[in-house]
TrEMBL record:
Residues 55-67 have a biased composition (Low complexity). Residues 1-89 are annotated as: Disordered. This is Uncharacterized protein. PANTHER family: ZN(2)-C6 FUNGAL-TYPE DOMAIN-CONTAINING PROTEIN-RELATED.
């Protein structure tokens, strides 16, 4: 009887491939343990240096207190400090954080996440290493998807406030304002449930990126803990009506909604979390939007909620004048961003969709009144598009060869992500508006033949903007991986797909080319880890 290790099943080539894979896994495990050990040693060393800095830095803080910088915010914790600087550029913000240069965004993501936010600075590396990336091991496979809590670019630069010979570096993170706000809000005392919600989202992303079930399990456990704390927080809020907890609860619910989408691939669960956020914001009222945190949550909620108001044909409190014409509106530059000025118009449409569905007796005069209302909204949308192109000195987009063949030969390449999100949302809003125009015109035709002209025009507009919405998709999916951008463009894609189905089934048009392309695109989107809103049609 032969002794020793039994032979693996399969051919010799398969056994060799299995051995190579095992060696690679062993090497990765060794590197991971080494990085974790180095990180723990660095944390122990930095703890001693931070204690010395805290004791010696009190006099320096006193001497500098006479000339404070209004755009610099310092968050202090016992034994640790982080310096955060925000620079306003047009309507966006650029945040600068004093972080350690050598941050390993590898498998030990939790430790790196904590270190990045809790440690103020670290000595600069020897000459020749300063230009290296944030992953010194050279084996860093982190992507923009893995750092999507910041959803932006990361750059390393010399801090101008430090002399050239200084030993400090600065890391700048250009990111989404709401994500930035909740990340900083999580550093406040008593924000443990928000920390857990953000950590669960981060672990979910890393688990998806690396296909690591251990991280997915850790994310699930952390998510359950955050949800339990969120339920307890809601109970306390209902009992005490403490408005100060409103921003924290709504930020946590928004963070949990992202994990719900990533883990369970459930738009229904995602929408339920958004309903909780909306209930909190509506309950507190417009007067509660006094702090930056509360306003960041409001802008984040308004952006993510509007697609579901369209899909469910349900009006929202956001369409009321008191939720649009704020006293502080003129002083907040975020209301001048293209997407937010578009949302001021778009929130009117779900109200009209709900009214159409719930009106039992649609007389010809009622249909005419509704068409006149929609015509005013169309005028506002046309004006928004004209102003958008006038504000931009250059064209907001160009075209390039389409990577997803089968429908169009060219796809749209936007100048930047903000314009991409705004224009793609505009396409979806316009598609849904003309869906309602077609229904009203079709109802009116038996009593007014002139409504057939309105119907034909609405069909042309719906088809035109559905094709444009499809051309916009490639920008989000065939370039860098942008999770937030992908979520934003799924609503216009669903609107376009629904319009193609309607034109084929109700209007007699041949949409086989468009429907086949939409089906293939839905499979591509689901292959990227995100579910589509619904599968409209299968060929």
């Amino acid at each position: 009887m032969p002794q020793g290790r039994p032979r693996l099943p399969g051919t010799e080539a398969q056994r060799a491939a299995a051995r190579r894979q095992q060696i690679r896994e062993n090497v990765r495990a060794f590197r991971r343990r080494r990085r974790e050990r180095e990180l723990s040693e660095n944390q122990a060393e930095n703890t001693d240096s931070v204690k010395e800095e805290t004791s010696s830095g009190s006099s320096t803080d006193k001497s500098q207190s006479g000339s404070p910088t209004p755009q610099t915010i310092s968050y202090e914790r016992p034994g640790r400090q982080i310096s955060i600087t925000r620079e306003r550029r047009d309507s966006d913000s650029r945040w600068a954080l004093a972080l350690p240069l050598r941050i390993d965004l590898g498998p030990a993501y939790t430790g790196a996440f904590i270190a990045a936010f809790h440690y103020r600075s670290s000595p600069s590396p020897p000459p020749g290493i300063a230009s290296t990336s944030l992953c010194p091991s050279g084996n860093c496979s982190i992507s923009s998807r893995a750092v999507s809590p910041f959803s932006g670019s990361i750059t390393v630069s010399r801090d101008p406030s430090v002399p050239p010979g200084g030993d400090y570096m600065r890391v700048e993170i250009c990111c989404c304002e709401w994500i930035t706000a909740v990340s900083f809000q999580a550093m406040y005392p008593g924000a443990e449930m928000l920390k857990d919600a953000l950590l669960a989202s981060s672990l979910n992303l890393i688990g998806m990126e690396r296909d690591d079930p251990r991280l997915s399990i850790a994310a699930m456990q952390t998510q359950n803990k955050a949800l339990r704390q969120l339920r307890e927080g809601f109970d306390d809020y209902v009992a005490s009506r403490d408005v100060t907890q409103n921003a924290l609860l709504s930020a946590t619910a928004l963070a949990c909604s992202m994990s719900e989408l990533l883990v369970n691939k459930s738009w229904a669960g995602y929408a339920l979390h958004l309903k909780g956020v909306g209930a909190l914001i509506e309950d507190a009222g417009p007067a509660a939007l006094t702090s930056r945190d509360s306003r960041d949550n409001f802008f984040g909620y308004r952006t993510t909620q509007i697609p579901f108001n369209f899909l469910e044909h349900r009006g929202t409190f956001l369409s009321r004048p008191e939720w649009i014409n704020f006293p502080w509106r003129a002083s907040d530059p975020r209301f001048n961003r293209p997407r937010d000025t578009l949302l001021d118009i778009a929130v009117q449409i779900p109200v009209q969709l709900e009214l159409y569905d719930k009106s039992p007796n649609k007389t010809p005069n009622w249909n005419r009144r509704q068409l006149r209302k929609l015509n005013r909204i169309v005028t506002q949308l046309n004006q928004w598009r004209t102003e958008l192109f006038e504000k931009c000195s250059d064209s907001i987009y160009t075209t390039e060869a389409a990577a997803w063949e089968g429908l169009h030969s060219e796809s749209i390449k936007f100048r930047d992500d903000n314009l991409a999100a705004a224009f793609t949302l505009y396409a979806g809003v316009r598609i849904e508006l003309f869906v309602l125009v077609r229904r009203l015109a079709a109802d009116l035709i038996p009593n007014d033949e002139s409504a057939s002209l309105i119907l034909r025009g609405a069909i042309r507009e719906g088809f035109k903007w559905s094709r444009i919405a499809c051309q916009c998709l490639e920008y989000f999916f065939t370039r860098e991986r942008r999770v937030m951008g992908k979520v934003a463009c799924l609503f216009p894609f669903d609107c376009a797909w629904g319009t193609f189905v309607e034109l084929q089934e109700e209007r007699g048009a041949n949409m086989s080319l468009e429907l086949r392309w939409c089906q293939n695109t839905a499979e591509r989107i689901e292959g990227s880890g995100l579910p589509v809103f619904r599968v409209r049609y299968r060929i």
